[in-house]
Amino acid sequence: MTRGSIVAALLLLTPACSDDVGNDGEDGALLEVEVPASGRVFLRLATPEIVAPAGDGAASTDWDLALSGYDVFTNSGLSGPGDGGALPLTLEDTRAGQLPNTPFLLTDETGGAFTRWYAYDGESHVAFSRYHIHAIEHEGRYWKLQILSFYGEVEGAPVTALYQLRVAEVLPDGAGETVDIKDLDATAGDIDALESAPSACLDLAGNRQLMLTPAEARESTEWHVCFRRSLVSVNSELGGPGAARGADLQEKETRSEALADVKERTAASERARFDAADYQALTDPAVRYRGDHVATAFTGRWLEPGSSPPAPARDTAWLVQSADGQSRFVAVFERFVGATDASPGRVIMRVKQVE
User: Fold this and answer.
1) InterPro entries recorded for this chain (predicted)?
2) Residue 102: which residues within 8 A CB-CB, separation 6 or more?
């Protein structure tokens, strides 16, 4: 599923009356899962039960969900060969017996620090930047980057995926000069575009733009951040062969940000937050830097923000599709027992097949 398809899926998250989860008062079948800090434990939801697929599960459709540390995977996309996927739901809608009427689910794709850089308005079909400060670290150097807009203009007409950005290197004795980047070309990568079409990447150390195809980006260490439609990649781990790492300094705010509030933000109103992000803020040990990894419907959503020890999100349920694409389930993570920094320990969850 492309990032554009993800936007389409999010558009359809509003409750509808297509599928009824039932109002019989039953909470579904209880399942307790010991989750390792490394390696994966695999679940089949129809029973529900823990299963042991052949090999590492990457070629198997015998599982629907997999848990590893604080990651949750579906049998789809980068994680498996199945037709699975998931969508977040509110517990309120779930308990009312309502599920979204949508053929789209979020599948497992590449993502990282920029996975949730925008809020999507389904009525106007516009992506609004959250104006978060994204930090990039590479070999001991730090930069801050703020996305101002996903839209540019060509000959008086609005164009999607012409990014407006501000960037500055952050040094121990203060920030460097802020560079405004206008109309960064990330227009390649839509449904009809050729995979060989290039899009813009930034070499922050060299203060230059590179136009690279996905294949070229996968082989190059010359860039730090690449833009392709709404997907923003960092050059390490799954993102590329480099050693750059990224972080969202306002990641914890994402879950509680209302669309109406995000829409009120402007490049001018958020300049102060950009300027305030100093070396101490970017090098704070609490900032979680990493490269791109497998991003799923659960990434950044299934944990309660600020919980210590970590706990499952209180107001969220999950619509999960089986690997064979034939069945859907509602899963609710009730609590963790013995959670550590590396793993939720024993996960207590309930699973109910959609009726």
Assistant:
1) HmuY
2) 9, 12, 13, 16, 87
